[in-house]
Amino acid sequence: MNKKNNNSNNNHIELSGLSNHLWESASILRGPIDAADFKTYIFPFLFFKRISDVYDEEMKAALDESDGDLEYAQFPENHRFQIPNDCHWEDIREKGENIGYALQEAMRSIEKANPDTLHSIFGDAQWTNKDRLSDALLKDLIEHFSKLSLGNQNCKADILGQSYEYLIKKFADLTNKKAGEFYTPRSVVALMVRILAPREGGTIYDPACGTGGMLLEALHYVKEHGGSENLMLGKLYGQEKNLTTSAIARMNLFLHGAEDFRIERGDTLRLPAFYSGDSLATFDCVIANPPFSLQKWGDEIWQNDPYGRNFVGLPPAKTGDFAWVQHMIKSMAPKTGRMAVVLPHGVLFRMAKEGKIRRKLIEIDILEAVIGLGPNLFYGTGLAACILVFRATKQQSHRERVLFIDASKEFKTGRAQNELLPEHIENIHGWYADFQDVEGACRVITLDEVRENDYNLNIPRYVEPVIEEETMTLDQAIANFKESIEAAYKAEDRLKDLLKREGLMT
Fold first, then answer.
1. Cβ neighbours, 10 Å, residue 181
2. pTM for the complete prediction?
3. Whole-angstrom Cα distance, residue 19 to residue 160?
4. Distance (Å) of CA 365 to CA 29, 324, 330, 502
5. How far apart are CA 89 and CA 220, in angstroms?
6. pLDDT greater at residue 373 or residue 478
7. Which of 42, 422, 108, 57 is nearest to 251 (CA)?
8. How far is the C-alpha of 154 from the C-alpha of 9, rounded, in Å?
């Protein structure tokens, strides 16, 4: 393809500037496009602009290296992604009519030119629907994005990635209830990743990966703790049922600079994407915030599940929470496997089928911790949730024991939603890491005590809140007593005066 001249600003882009610029793009769509659909259009636009600008940088570098040899510069080896002729951002920018059609054709051609990495990456947005996306609106959107250069030279991957995450959260805020389907608050994610403590070279799997935030946080944790990013190549795995959301997850990872990961679209409970021979693939870290109490989750398949995921029982058809738990346990590596999963509190105490499943899981002795979170931390529900932590092989001192943590007071109250702050994460993780009793916060419970409670894991059964009683020193008590006596004498004197004035007392 012919290299185009991009008139974008060539200054380094700061995080706040880029975040605000991206958020302003949503204003262009307001009216014709519902807020819930903004992400369907904005994210593919951003990704298209990014790969076009990076392609231009790669072209320039190859031309400089080859003394202007255009044929050499166009070799696939010189580019991360291939952009066919007439499919570059600037090609679409030049269009004056039928822009949506040209845009859709360009995106599909790019996907076909990069089948191993970009298949279906742009999602299923209807760019050709002129009732929603007129040529004038698309032109405005293109020109807005064209104001900034999003190549590596001006826009580092960490800045672009953080801006992308900012945009995901803003869209989640806009669509609160629906947001729970694709977004987990990053503070909760950070807590779960700290608990699992992924290490370089270890595999990480999210079976309900949404927009990819948990996988990215795990990668970030490894890098922050001195791990090599190169040793994480081919180590990130995720599956997501929703087409648009799975595409956003892949774009999210690419824009953060991640490489050689696998995000597959599909129904994890009905048709898991990762397996080894006749068995499910296993991973070192398994982490997820699956849909709460999912109905019609696939119990008809699990009655004879080919992967043996009903190993402690078939969950009820109307509540799929323990289907996710069993799938994730089956996905843990035999020795190094550990998992953290967000669930509704009902899994801790509901009886019938779930009670029997819970009993068998507890007896296997792989449940390490039950953490009760505060209310209104998640999009789409004001209810409090819990985190269950499992380990395929517990350390000796943790065997036949479960740590119960009551973190229900660990949050900052917000206007629309509560929030876990860094100090809250520090407290909860500290209790988990120490694995010992702290009055009013956590207790290490033996399995015998759990058995005595009929395998009910409801946290208040095991962790009693501290009842704060007002205490005072002896000096304060004496002073208060003297004040009370003086007040009583004064009241008595006033009563005597009143009676004398009324002639009732001489």
1. 17
2. 0.84
3. 8
4. 52, 18, 15, 82
5. 30
6. 373
7. 42
8. 9
